[in-house]
Protein 1
Amino acid sequence: MSTAKTSAAPSRLNEVFDDLISTLRAFIRKHHITHDEYRRAVALLTEAGKREGEVSLLMDVFLEATVDQVDWAGRDGTESTVEGPFYVPEAPAMKTPCVLPHRANEPGDVLIFSGAVRSPDGSALGGAIVDIWHADAEGAYSHFNIPKTQAPYNLRARVTTDDRGRFEIQTWVTAPYQIPKAGPTGALLAALGRHAWRPAHIHVKLSHEGFETLTTQIFLKNSPWLDSDVVGAVKPSLIAGLEKHEDPADMRKRGLERRHFTVAYDFILPTLVKAAS
Ligand code: BEZ
Ligand code: FE
């Protein structure tokens, strides 16, 4: 089918969009999509558009892991994975060591997340920013989960590494959670007979001048759903084990009065990919 063109030079948008439309038309023919099915798809997208955050949720659940695989193929450094729909920019700036913003009665066990940020040649990246966010011990994110029981930026911060590239962040052990199910994304998963669970994970976005910004997640070893993440974003190199500390001497060393957990992970930022001139 010819298209109504107003300019001669095909841009990347023309190429990609034309291919998307022909792929969708071929898909409609292949599966003999009925008019009723077409209208139901339109209704699902219309409903998603009416709900705050739902379009991002729908796209991120079904497509973001593939975009990550394609866009990050061939890069060096720590493996990336999806950002997801729950990132909030401009979290409070903190210097390592620090305690993330939290409630007076923050539920669950204390977790100390530590490590280093390095370049591919192994040099320490002092002054790198570790932008961290994760769900609480009940699987809820500040800013998103309803009812909103967490203050803005709870369990979120942008932490600067020390001059040896290290960070030590006190937070609370996060939990597996189900992505929000009340809207069309949840309805679609239910209709497909799929669960909505993600394994326990900590999101980070790491940046330093002269390197690519790395968006990734650290998955907690032994968490349920590591093998069947609804988003398909787990990579074995990103799984890290929790260590439990119950020895009173161990607790005193950290100035803590109760048992706590630690998780350590060292990150390597990818070499900057120069934009084509
Ligand atoms: C998340 O990691 O929070 C997430 C990622 C993609 C879709 C939904 C949630
Ligand atoms: Fe998440």
Protein 2
Amino acid sequence: MRTYKGLRVFEGYALGKLKVYETLKVEKIVGIGMDEEFKRFEQAREETIQALDKSFMETLSKLGEEEAQLFETHKLMAEDLDFEDAVKAELMGNVSAEYAVLRAGEELATMFSSMDDAYMKERANDVKEVANRIVSFLKKEDKGFNLTEPSIIICDDLPSSELMKLDKNLILGIIFVKGGANSHVSILTRMLEIPAICSIEDLEVTKDLDGEYSILDASGAQLLIGPEMKSITLYAQKKKEYEDNKERLKAFKGKPTLTKDGKKTMIYSNIASSFEAENAIKNDSEGIGLFRSEFIYLDSKDYPTEDEQFEHYKRVVEEMKGKEVIIRTLDIGADKKIDYFDLPEEENPALGFRSIRICLKRPEIFATQLQALYRASHYGNLAVMIPMIISESEIDFVHEMCDLAKDNLRKRGLPFNEKMKIGIMVETPSAAIMSDVFAKKVDFFSIGTNDLSQYTLAIDRVNPNLTANFNPRHRSICRFIKMVCENAHQEGITVGICGELARDEIMLPFFLKIGIDELSVSPAYTLSLREQISKIDTNDVDVDKYIY
Ligand code: PEP
Ligand code: MG
């Protein structure tokens, strides 16, 4: 048995044969004459358009108009005259239609990615996808990739259009060996709730893998190729339990989150892209507790503009239809590096130049983000949260910057919510200790237990050698959480938890007893958390057990 580790795209289990999706390669470079090759291109383009129409209709009926729109955009690209001209220009070099289409696609993609507008930038991948689709028709391969039996797809990456045209009943799971967890196809995979993992090192996708019996343990983010009987039995059992559980949890949809003794709390979602808001809604989340906005910066080749950011933020608040959406401002540095920020190399990055510290030094970046956030506040229930706060002066700086952002929008005549809430993350020991003072200055707290544990325990959260020592249930952290909660409530502000500890079964009774107002977790955990909460009677919880 060979075991490969990756990153989770969507949880669940799959057992079955692998089906390889091979990335398109063009070997035929020399053409048979310009006119002939152009005719071949026209024919393949026509077939592509028909296939896209089909994908549009399928997606419309299964996922809705917003997701289906992508295929309409692809169709417009395939028909676009600039694209046709680019193909013609390439064909002048006596190359094959396949080669000309791929080159034309790359050329237009480069042009799109250099544009300022976020929407146009995102089109770069789409135009490449359209070109690939036409090439596969030219190679008469488009009908080649199909599933005839239930299979686990393994690929370097998969165009969204390919995914949508497949029979979903036959997709057991997907492994995107080279793909990222936030690519468009990964997001679609999550929406379709297909178990999937991505970003696997040391695994080459070759035809030899076709038909190999495997286990995809997407919950544990691993792939087991050629498992022995013992593992097959174990994972078949895990799969059954997972699916039975999922079915049972549906009973908690549409219900309030209440403890056995009737105490109310809220379950919010942690998301990393505006598209995931739909997932939060689907899982009956009561709000967004942490939108990690740095992923907008990580997905961009240059500083995202105010308009680009505004589109993302507006999409989330509109999708959540009046439910609270807490967007965290830029939190880069430490383990999240972005080339164009040109951050210095550091001895101790986790203790270094990161998040609000960067915003303080480079206020122009922060101003752009705040303006985009205030603009989006007009479209729903938006609140903003600042990471890595350690001192009052930082909070004062944030308020000054907010005032400047508001002035800016007033001058431009743009609408915004004057009273948008500004909160902070409590994720440093300093913020926890000072929480009585900070609670007077902000509208809410959200406890980031991942970093609060790292800094309280002085253990690097990403060091694999220290995983066993990294104990976020440590009594020092419980004491901090209790103290922060009391200080928040003393000043009449709410307090949530958005670190991984928020869904910890052992900690849950403690959180409910001390009165944490909101727990923010990945959307997929919403219903199971609601069920767990329904079984807890806070009268039976002994807080001392956690802190002494
Ligand atoms: C945290 O630190 O707990 C947190 C939620 O933020 P991140 O994991 O993004 O640092
Ligand atoms: Mg953090």
